[in-house]
Amino acid sequence: MNAPHPLLTLTDEVADALAADRPVVALESTIISHGMPYPQNVAMATEVEQIVRDGGAVPATIAVLDGVPRIGLGKDDLELLASHGDVMKVSVRDLPYAVARRLHGATTVAATMRLAAMAGIRVFVTGGLGGVHRGAELSFDVSADLTELSRTPVAVVSAGVKSILDIGLTLETLETYGVPVLVNGADEFPSFYSRSSGHAAPMRVDGAAEIADVMRATWDLDLSTGLVVANPIPADDEIPADRIGGIIEQALADADARGIRGKDTTPYLLARIVEITGGDSLVANIALVRHNARLAAAVASAYCSPGVP
Ligand code: PSU
Ligand code: MN
Description:
Distance between the termini: 23 Å
Bound molecules: pseudouridine-5'-monophosphate, manganese (II) ion
CATH architecture: 3-Layer(aba) Sandwich
CATH topology: Indigoidine synthase fold
């Protein structure tokens, strides 16, 4: 591969793996700093790195620390991101400011994709993607995760899109942007906490080898997009759509009443859903991230070794 961008700092382990074309999986950090409470967030981040390792890939959690985009983090870095009060939520538009001001920043899916691509990493795992917010026709609130998927060649493994978003409009936007949307092992697009969403899978695949084939075809065709790889939460871990639906409505109403807007919206809704469910949503969230990490490690391995089952 080409040398990684000079502004990035890679751990030796990640740099060695990339130089040898061995599998690497990127992980985001907004989920740590702004997506889950402490200390479950640092426990999740640590465990998920181990799952990636057990799957035969090198984990590269990505964040900006003291203004330096870091590809691969240590234990103390994860602890800082999980517990430090002053970590900025960094999407792509925030990256220059965080770097110039030497800030700590937790990167969203969009910013993590960009930094992963700069490092030469093709597979990235998270819990849920951002998308088109409900009411976006008035608020214009559409996550930069979607624009980044339209222009950055990284496959993003997630459990789909939460219904805090408008799932139908999110899928329409991804279609407009030319982003392949694959669902692993199911005919319906999943809605994060639930296996169902009421929306058909745009494209179904079964397993890591098939996913790696579509990644290769995408980039062999010189398409510069990323891919969405939606991995439905295991049935035993899901919160049925009829239970979580009302809870999400409540959280959205609370956000509205408090005047929460812009980049604060997603973190507020996630925290409020944890509160209303008495922690059940957090248990489901951690379970689906684990499940996604296993798939992402297998996808990274299949991508590095075409033809090996
Ligand atoms: N959805 C989740 N958990 C998360 C996020 C989304 O279930 O932690 C985070 C991701 O980092 C995602 C970001 O990229 O929120 C989207 O924020 P926004 O809607 O402001 O673009
Ligand atoms: Mn937004």
